[in-house]
Amino acid sequence: MPLPRRVHAVVVSVALLATGCFAASAHAATPDGAGPASAGCIQPGPTLRYLVVLDQGTTAPVADAVVAGACGTTLGYYPQIGVAVAVSADPGFVRKIGVNRAYSAQADGLSRRTGAPARKQDETPARSGTPDTRDRTAEQWDMDLIRAAEAHAISKGSRDVVVGVLDSGVDPTHPDLVRALDPALSAGCTTGVADPSRAAWSPTTSAHGTHVAGTIAAADDGVGTTGVAPDVRIAAVKVVDDAGFIYPEYAVCGFMWAAERGMTITNNSYFIDPWVFTCQNKTGQAVVYEAVRRAVEYAGKRGVLTVAAAGNGGVDLTRPGRDTQSPTNAATEDVKPRAVDNTCLVLPAQLRNVVAVSSVGADKVKAGYSSYGLGAVDVTAPGGDRRQQPGGGQPCVLSTVPAGYDYSCGTSMAAPHVSGVAALLASTHPEASAGELSRMLNAQAETLACPADYDLNGTGAQDAFCTGYSEYNGFYGHGMVDAKAAVQNVGGEGAPAVPGKQR
């Protein structure tokens, strides 16, 4: 699902695993700060899933022993980063293993909210479409804005480049995506452990991932829409569960899968639940931050460029003033302002070496819903805005959805434009590292200065404040990606370093 503005109470619906007692080992090693292994395990249930952060370099046998010693069972372990996914029916699992070592998004969700599940939404949600054999590229104002068609006259991308779509799954039968989608590189991660079966990575309750995939690589075949880089490959990496949430273990699994499978780029049109802002200095949240940080860093070292949506909250990401202690409910505005805490970040967008993407409408002005912030946003791309009508047409972005095509607005839609341009850059610079691709993205971007007047509602008051200068500011970062400039080698490996959080 999208990286949305919150339009729902964060209510967690979990498919509970069968409860069971996991015998503790009296001699199990325990991490620093954890108490000794319990002689007996309590099993009142429900069995919950936990993310466990261990010292880097911890071996798999030691990790298993640590988890077992706290009355849990290891579902999967990533020795490259020292992060495990475990389950336990013992309510004392976190205490036994260490409060700074383990966290359960399921447990947090169950304790905070009750009721039916509510799904995240973009500014306009993508739905399943109806079969359509028309050429609809004339409706793709977004592609005109980034000069995609002009780029295609030079390059449509290389089959050697793979973009991992970390999202809600990609329709494997869509005619515009069949050639691009590589089933052998696809997997479902909604247990925290990769499952390569087709059922695990195919979409179930959401069209969002298919929409994102089409923006990146829909075929240039004269039917339907055309993606930014129609000749590259994509992989469906499902990190969104059927309730529409992206728990941290899902994202960690997705990043690690992409890294181990040699993907070039990952597109991340979401933020990691259950908080909009994850704080590095809060119990539980610090575990999430560290696990995701390690996974993203590992992927980068393996050559994977991470692209992420900045979010639809319309907030300055450098001054998070929302309640970072609990999930938000933008529908009822039950979010109380808090003091600025710069240790609280949107994940993964605000992590180091992640390309964070804001959204503009057809007039190249920041969309009202798009979050922003000087030093937080790297580049911008078309995501649509109802206030900015493209020549009287649909203001949202048209792309593929299961069984057809549909429109959607959001930073979720902006991010895949950036991933597509990055894929073109990677195609023409096959030896470029993730850092070099990031620098080239910044260098080829079209400069967009701060607007002189950002009064979207006509009230006489500014709806947001853009800081910085023409070449680098809080609304647009280094500017809007330009596909033609990318394939013309504008700002190649020799481009000068520019400010931003990647440095």
From TrEMBL:
Lineage, opening ranks: Bacteria, Bacillati, Actinomycetota, Actinomycetes, Pseudonocardiales
Residues of the signal peptide: 1-28
Keywords (A to Z) from UniProt: Hydrolase, Protease, Serine protease, Signal
Organism this protein belongs to: Saccharothrix variisporea
GO-annotated biological processes: proteolysis
Pfam families recorded: Peptidase_S8
Active site: 167 (charge relay system), 208 (charge relay system), 412 (charge relay system)
Gene Ontology molecular function, alphabetical: serine-type endopeptidase activity
Region annotation (Disordered) ranges: 108-137
Residue stretches making up the Peptidase S8/S53 domain: 159-454
Protein name: Subtilase family protein
Family: Belongs to the peptidase S8 family.
